[in-house]
Automatic annotation (TrEMBL):
Coiled-coil boundaries: none
Record GO terms (molecular function): oxidoreductase activity
UniProt superkingdom: Bacteria
InterPro entries: NAD(P)-bd_dom_sf, SDR_fam
Organism annotation: Micromonospora avicenniae
Keywords for this protein: Oxidoreductase
Keyword Oxidoreductase assigned: yes
Nucleotidyltransferase is among the record's keywords: no
Protein name per the record: NAD(P)-dependent dehydrogenase, short-chain alcohol dehydrogenase family
């Protein structure tokens, strides 16, 4: 099951998994892009994938998605929490959270919790941009005060790495890993003319290259991987200290559970 499967890294991963013969479930937001992604997966593999739509800016959408997935599948071998975006302007969601922390962290945190008993392994698309993170679990809306898109984004990616490590501690029966895909030419940031131009002109990675470590994590023997680890180019890396602090990870978990209304 791949979130953010309608574009970029998630779509490249879904196509590859389907080609290998895996049953792939695509989760996306934009209906037209999701349908087009489903068609691409079908053309590449001969199998028509199931499509599920949810906007992670709305936590009720995530709850409905989890209900539908639970009704449809007894077992989810791999949950790929890949959906994510950089948010150029400060936005408060209907749930009252800064949009980057909600769409990139709180929504997948909630989805993973709601599916937890069905999931065998989890792969999270994090980022080297965690270096710009300034996470404060006491105030998940801190970036709204003096908004800088890259700080808000980096904070959500810092949260992805901390979440993965804490999930490995709390849910040892699930193999949880996260990774940095490199700088990849996708629709990421394309609302910014500057980023869009950079994506077109600079020699960034293809989505297929960006998905390589994701696919390697999905297909590797978990005994050879570090549960809760952060990977880049198929190698275990040490994230910056602010994304490797177990106490911060535990505090983030408690704050996130409270934010989305579940037991910690
Ligand atoms: N590109 C890079 O250089 C880079 C580097 C490091 C990490 N990453 C991470 O890689 C992941 C995938 O990004 P990408 O580069 O492949 O970008 P992309 O082409 O823009 O794809 C992002 C995917 O996430 C979905 N998404 C975005 N906001 C959403 C929301 N509110 N609710 C539900 N789904 C949402 C998008 O759905 P729609 O089709 O509806 O927009 C799309 O399927 C992200 O987590 C990103 O942070 C990217």
């Amino acid at each position: 099951m791949v979130t953010g499967a309608s574009s970029g890294i998630g779509l490249a991963a879904a196509v590859d998994l389907a080609r290998r013969g895996d049953q792939v479930v695509l989760v996306g937001r934009d209906p037209a892009r999701l349908q087009a992604a489903g068609d691409r997966v079908r053309d590449a593999s001969g199998e028509t994938p199931e499509l599920f739509r949810a906007d992670f800016a709305v936590l009720d959408d995530v709850r409905r998605l989890a209900e539908k997935l639970r009704a449809a599948y007894d077992r989810i071998d791999v949950l790929v929490n890949n959906a994510g975006a950089i948010v150029l302007q400060p936005v408060t969601t209907v749930d009252g959270f800064e949009l980057s922390i909600q769409a990139n962290h709180l929504a997948p945190f909630l989805l993973s919790n709601l599916l937890r008993d069905r999931v065998g392994r989890m792969v999270v698309t994090a980022s080297g941009a965690h270096r710009s993170g300034a996470l404060d679990p006491n105030d998940l809306n801190l970036p709204l005060r003096r908004y800088r898109a890259f700080t808000a984004y980096g904070t959500s990616k810092q949260a992805n790495i901390l979440f993965t490590a804490e999930a490995a501690r709390r849910w040892p029966e699930i193999h949880s890993h996260c990774f940095h895909p490199g700088v990849v030419r996708t629709r990421f940031g394309n609302e910014s003319r500057l980023v869009a131009a950079g994506m077109r002109l600079l020699p960034f990675r293809s989505p297929e290259k960006g998905a390589e470590t994701l696919l390697w994590l999905v297909n590797s023997d978990p005994a050879r991987l570090r549960n809760g680890g952060y990977y880049y180019n198929r190698r275990l890396r040490r994230p910056l200290r602010k994304a490797a602090d177990p106490q911060l990870a535990a505090r983030l978990w408690t704050a996130s559970a409270k934010a989305v209304g579940i037991d910690a």
